[in-house]
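Progress note, sequence design subtask.
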């Protein structure tokens, strides 16, 4: 199915990218292609018993799709009020259950029992560092197995992640076949904790 067909099936509107709110530390809104979300759903790393946090949740595509497809609860973190409001509209139209959107900065989100985390380059490494610290702090507070998914990671993200001692590299889920490219960034890097 095309992205438009998926949006129609889920009763949401998430297709249009928005580059107007990009700045030095925050990236533009660009939805993750559904074929990539299907790859995550079919990876064997995400299950109905997991709790997923989607950082930079935008209009809610990732949260709503993975909730519907896998059945896991999802918490979307978004800092832009306009995107947040549209995500709430999409949530209402979709009828998805166990999805929450929070309007806040990612670095301020206190991770509690979530055990899976999704990033599509929502912000700079300057913001990623304290976000990862909060994830790791929550692990030491309440030990559990965690998975972190990074789609199309920037070189800056990859360099940081590969040198973060507390993160264990698990897998590189290539998405190059989905787009007919050899671009090494066209993948989902999976890291684990615990």
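Output:
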């Amino acid at each position: 199915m095309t992205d438009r067909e998926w949006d129609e099936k889920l009763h949401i509107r998430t297709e249009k990218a928005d580059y107007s709110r990009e700045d030095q530390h925050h990236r533009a809104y660009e939805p993750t292609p559904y074929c990539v979300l299907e790859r995550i759903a079919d990876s064997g790393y995400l299950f109905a018993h997991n709790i997923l946090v989607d950082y930079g949740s935008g209009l809610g595509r990732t949260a709503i799709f993975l909730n519907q497809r896998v059945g896991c609860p999802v918490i979307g973190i978004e800092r832009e009020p306009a995107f947040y409001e549209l995500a709430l509209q999409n949530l209402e139209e979709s009828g998805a259950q166990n999805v929450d959107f929070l309007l806040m900065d990612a670095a301020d989100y206190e991770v509690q029992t979530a055990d899976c985390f999704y990033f599509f380059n929502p912000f700079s490494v300057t913001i990623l560092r304290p976000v990862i610290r909060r994830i790791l702090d929550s692990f030491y507070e309440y030990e559990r197995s965690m998975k972190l998914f990074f789609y199309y990671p920037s070189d800056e993200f990859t360099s940081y992640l590969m040198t973060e001692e507390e993160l264990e590299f698990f897998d590189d889920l290539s998405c190059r076949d989905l787009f007919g490219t050899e671009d090494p960034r066209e993948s989902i890097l999976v890291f684990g904790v615990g």
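The first helix runs from residue 3 to 10. Work on this subtask will continue into the next period as scheduled.
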